[in-house]
Amino acid sequence: MEKSLFRYIWTHSKRDQMIICAVVLASLPFYFMSLDLPRQIVNQAIQGEAFRDGNATAPLLKLAFDWPEWLGGGKWEIFEGFQVGRVGLLMGLSFVFLFFVIVNGAFKYWINVSKGVLGERMLRRMRFDLFAMVLRFTPNALRTVKSSETATIIKDEVEPIGGFIGDAFITPVFLGTQAITALVFIMVQNAWLGLIALAVIAVQFTIIPRLRRELLRLGKQRQLASRQLAGRIAEVLDGIEVVHVHNAYGWERAEIGHRLFSLFTIRLQIYNRKFFVKTLNNFLAQLTPFFFYAIGGYFALRGTLDIGQLVAVIAAYRELPPPLKELIDWDQQRLDVQVKYDQVTQHFAEERLGPMLEAREAEEADQPLVGSFVGEDIRVAGPHGDLIIEGGAFTVELPSSVALISNGGAAASMLARILARRSLEFSGRIRIGERDLTQLPASVTGRRIAYAGVDPILFPGSIRDNLVYGLRSKPLGRLKEDRQEMDRRIAEALRTGNPVESISDQWVDYERIGAKDENDLDRILLDLLDRVGMGDTIYLFGLAGRIDPERHTSLAERLVEARHRLRKTFQSNGMADLVEPFDPARYNSQATIAENLLFGVPISDEFRGRNLADNAQFRSAIDRAEMTDDFVQMGLQIAETMTEIFEGLPPGHSLFEQFSFIGADELTEFEAILRRRGRGEGSLRREDRTRLLSLPLAYIESRHRLGLLDDAMTGRIVEARGIVHEVLEKAGSGGVEFYDPEGICAAAPLRDNLLFGRVSYQVANARARVAEAVAAVVRELDLQEEVERVGLEYQVGTAGRLLSPQERASINLVRCLVKRPDILVIDGALAPFDEASSQQLIQLLLELFDQQSLFMVLPNDRQAGAFDVQMRFRDGQIITDKTAAPAPRASSPEPDAPQRIAGEVA
Amino acid sequence: MTLETEVQSLRQVPMFRDVDPARLKLLAFTSERVQFAGGQRFFSQGDPSDTAYVILEGRANVLLNTPGGEIQVAELGSNALVGEMGILSDTPRSATIMAAEPTTALRIDKRVFLELLAQFPQMSLAIMRELAKRLERTNAQLVAQASS
After folding, report:
1. Contacts of A763 in chain B (CB under 8 A)
2. Which of B32, B40, B112 sits opposite A655 (nearest CB)?
3. Structural domain tally of chain B?
4. Banded model confidence at residue A828, pLDDT cuts 50, 70, 90
5. Can you tell which superkingdom this protein's organism belongs to (chain B) (predicted)?
6. Out of A655, A659, A707, whose CB is closest to B3?
7. Residue A794 in 3-state DSSP?
8. All structural domains of chain A with their residue ranges
9. What domain range includes position B58?
10. How many alpha carbons lie under 13 Å from residue A250 in its C-beta half-sphere?
């Protein structure tokens, strides 16, 4: 990035800056006209100067020039004007004034918008440039760069710079011209007074910036301190577990408190300094009139200066301060922003960045990475300067499988990282065929080499998004998008140095991995996930997932069929009592009262949980059904029982969370409600009623067994169901998606759509048996793949935290496998698995990479026999052994076809 | 059948006889009522002990594995508590329990049961008293056997 902010701005926006400058200059005559017109209106029209010579009419809009004397003098009349009367002139001039007001307003509007847009474009460019540099950080720099600080820089610190850019050139030009005009005017009136004014201004412009230098130093400190504060907060949050484990709250609180104190101290100094400078500046500005009065007055008394001139000079000087003050402010802002910019560029200093990433690299170099793989004289230094590998050499014919057997040190892992091009910190040569490994372009290595390390890095998004991440190197096809919108998007991208590719284009390279389309890709992904042992998990994710009838059309069509089939299976196997189906005409005793009333799934939050009791539409419906009082009564009974049986348990006890209708913190409030009622205070308050009403909504008769519902009551609830539907449909809020026995409920999870009912709480072992039956029907109807495809949409959460370590590792592995790299390097990616599973996975990898190369770091010899080549590390040397007769790769006992566990269905 | 009737059943169990009614209600509320078909097993010998049951309705057989197959050693009826020794001593099931006819039982979760004992000493005392009585009975039986 440019060292100087102004050069950066000028390089990327000179055209826009000049256009805006030109418009500003073009607007000046109009501005002066509008200043001059009031005088004309008063003098010519109202005081009647134009009619002084007894003229009945005067010209309006007369356009004429007086040629200067040295051009021969004379008059050039462009337009002689309309002859109008006194009122006509007044009205005419007033309308001309109005016209100029509008024109000035229009200019101002255009200039402001253009300046704003210019600033925003530059901000976009700067942010993108910075982000592009983030991608270029060298591994060395990444050890010290903090992610949260970098994010703060790109998000917050460049923001004021963007705001300044619009004013960077225009303001000094505009204000400078104004100030110079006023100064020249004073000079013309009286050279001495002009020189005095100039001298004071010169003092102002030299002393003030000097005083501000300290201010800038403090500003720099403040910026760094606040950036570090942001970084520290993020660090604490990331490592919050350690804080909890070691009870380090006090220390962390003190740490942040100390930082805030130093930040405050810096800011205090800034304020003191800033207002001192401001005061001094104001004093200097007032010093000039003092000289004018004293010296000018003295000259006037002596008769060397006439009083009219003095008054004119003082008047002109009054015009001087506003532009001057703004100019000084601008200068302050400039320095401020320059400091910020310097800080930003220092963070992205050239020595911290790797070489530029070439957007389009030569394609012809893209040959399979096979042939003799030779390393010569490899030296790798450890973090303390010791040599980990010292003059190591190896020769391997690729493709083959290579076990890098660790000697307990870092050597095996280090070499693995070098081979995967993760580290370039070594000396020596590594060649594949004729090509130097370090010289391969990123497009080739990204495609042909894969690396799975200890840390499975996942991005938030679906499992599928994470799996295909390695296939998204460049867009291959354009998705149809609105032509006009696309042109606009691309034009903006070009203007701001941003990429023109859209993320909605087709980025995934199906052909490369032998897939025809999206569905085919899903099949490949599922197959690989199944083989690494994640098939069951994906199936369960699928059952818990929601289906989009538009995306999963075939599944949606067959889901209702599967639902009926499942019902028949239950009936024919004597399992009918295991699941109570949703029936529009019957009460479901395994579901909550709320679910029975809504007979559907809430979509918006205002229909969920406790909010339902407060929902106006729902309340009016149950009012109409005349059930509100019954529910409040039930609420009272529940509250009584709960306060009785949970009394004496300490707040926060796990039993509360698991079983109670009432949270521990609410218990006292409900006790208060009951006491108020017990004292016979008559009818309950409105908010008490709402609170009580919320209790029975979560009540499930067969689970909670408080005996609150009888047949008459359930019958009334089913009747009320119709009223609730009617009211909600009339309101058209769309907050609830209703159950339909012959349709899909997109808001409900897939398994609820399959079961279309609730598993009985009363039948022993019902859940496991239902899950088995569901799995059987899914298999029978060949829906397993479809269900698993829904499972691919499971969200992994921030850094994959919603997954277990094994699941994260599996996804990391499949992400590498699906790319079909020529060389796969694995270093600790199997760590989360137990011995048996990791052994199975190694066998699987060897099978899958029969035709490609596999480099794997192994902790010991135990598994190494199955690899073609074993590399050992001793005394800084690399010792390569070929397995004499490599065990045929398929000899390993075929792991049993994974038995599908049916899992929990609830 | 509601919570109240379950509490009545729990009161019939010697081990819970002296426990405060509100606590019994909590125990019943945090337990599940489950139905077993005739021939369905509550649990099998050797399974990990994670629950205890109180039979509310119906009958269940106690079966022991022997080299000659399973043999029935006892029959349990209403208000019988079964499986409590396993969750207290943290040992695997010492016998198989199988419903002899359609049976309803209250299923008490081990974790919840131990939570309640930890929380309410009075409940622990009641349990201890019952265990001590059982031990005394066993001792008396041993004495009787030895002397006969």
Report:
1. 34-35
2. B112
3. 1
4. confident
5. Bacteria
6. A707
7. coil
8. 1-134, 171-357, 371-472+796-891, 583-738
9. 3-147
10. 2
Burial class, A312, CB count within 10 angstroms (exposed 0-12 / middle 13-18 / buried 19+):
middle
Q: Which residue has the tokens 């919320």?
A: A694
The domain spanning residue B62 has which CATH number?
Answer: 2.60.120.10
| A66 strand-pairing partners | A75
The answer to whether the beta carbons of residues A540 and A775 sit under 8 Å apart is: no
Contact state of B2 with A706 under an 8 Å Cβ cutoff? yes
* Complete edge-to-edge strand list for the sheet that includes strand B41-43: B41-43, B96-99, B60-66, B69-76
Q: Which amino acid is at A531?
A: R
pLDDT, mean of residues A43-59: 73
Distance from CA of A669 to the nearest CA of B (A): 20
CATH class of the A371-472+796-891 domain in this structure: alpha beta
Q: What is the pLDDT of residues A740-787, one digit of tens each?
A: 888 888 888 988 888 888 988 888 888 888 888 889 888 888 888 888
B42 to chain A nearest CA, in Å? 8
Asked if residue A399 has a cis previous peptide bond (ω within 30° of 0), the answer is: yes
**Looking at residue A399, what DSSP letter applies?**
S
Residue with tokens 């370090």: A438
Which pLDDT band, with edges at 50, 70 and 90, does A67 fall under? low
ipTM, two decimals, is 0.84
Q: Chain A within 8 Å of B36 (Cβ-Cβ)? A: yes
CA-CA distance, A387 to A876, in Å (whole number)?
Answer: 7
Q: How much is the CA Rg of chain B, to the nearest whole Å?
A: 16
The residue type of A340 is K
Provide the b/e sequence for A330-368 (b: ≥16 CB within 10 Å). Answer: bbbbbbbbbbbbbbbbebbeeebbeeeeeeeeeeeeeee
Angle between helix A784-791 and A553-572 (nearest 10) = 120
CA pair distance A198, A58, nearest whole angstrom? 44
Confidence of residue A899 (pLDDT cuts 50, 70, 90): very low
Burial of A7 (0-12, 13-18, 19+ CB in 10 A): exposed
Burial of residue A552, with CB atoms counted within 10 A of its CB: 0-12 exposed, 13-18 middle, 19 or more buried:
buried
Q: Cα dihedral sign for A529, A533, A539, A541?
A: negative
Our CA-based measurement puts residue A641 at a distance from the nearest CA of chain B, in whole angstroms, of 9
- Kindly report, residue by residue over A622-647, the tens digit of the pLDDT: 888 888 888 888 888 888 888 888 87
Rounded Cα–Cα distance for residues A113 and A289 (Å) = 38
CATH level 3 topology of A171-357: ABC transporter transmembrane region fold (1.20.1560)
Among chain B residues, CA nearest to A761 = B34
Distance from C-alpha of A802 to C-alpha of A394, rounded to nearest angstrom: 42
**pTM exceeds 0.80:** no
CA distances from A482 to A478, A491, A550 (A): 12, 14, 21
